[in-house]
Amino acid sequence: MTVRVRAEAKIGLRLMICAIGLIGLFASRAVARDLIWVTVEGEAPVVAGATDKARGQAIAAAERQAVAVALAKGISVNTLLVNLRLSGNIVGAIPFGRVVKKKILKEQLVNAANDEASQQAQRFHVRMRAGVVKETGGEDLSFHLDATINQSVFKDGDELEIHIRSTKDCYFTIFNILEDQKVIRLLPNYLSQKNFLAANESYIFPGTKDHHKGLRLRVHLPPKRAHVTESIYILALAHPFELKSINVREGIFGAFNGQTIFMQDIIREVVGIPIANRAEALIQYEIRKTSNGI
Hints:
This protein is an alpha+beta fold. The chain has five helices and 14 strands.
């Protein structure tokens, strides 16, 4: 009996090992099927001869590009625009992606503007084959923004003031979505680089310090319009970010040429950030003519 029990135990152990092996095999195949493979490139400047640091930054840039390329094609910009107009909920609808496999195809130092004598002009360039996995879910319901403006209906020329409070530490950007499809970045700007908000900190934009710099927000009607509806959109993430497609306008604000371009840039920025580390707020308001028609 003792021998038989031991034999059965050994058989059971073998079966268990076999089963675990099969599960691992199926899991690896499932991961392989879920991977989205892309070939991307990344660059970073070499500062003070720190080649290794530049290499790491170039690889990180390539990984961000890989996630954006792999997942952005499957996201409908039009659907996000509808969600934005109706409820302001867009970042929760953008999946999170990460690079789980990568192979460096080529890496080299390159000189900008053919200036071979200047190390300051050097950049580290990598070309990479990356496998990206798409993940959904994981929203953090405790991370949210409380945002309001000083009134919901403005007359032409009135000042607008934005009040923001976050339940968690975050980095944020304020956008103004106009009725003509343009999107203006209000903050950060040339005069104010404020974009970190501590948990439960109350922040007003423009605040007293902004006023001392001559920065005020005044709403204006487009020509030949008696009434328009516009929006303030606030995007908050758990770490610093930058929307690089913004072109500087008037030395203060950055402007997107249209909401579609704006949404594409949001997708590129957000897809590599876990859903739990995102929050947003949308506030709509009206602008009307003054009583004397000015």
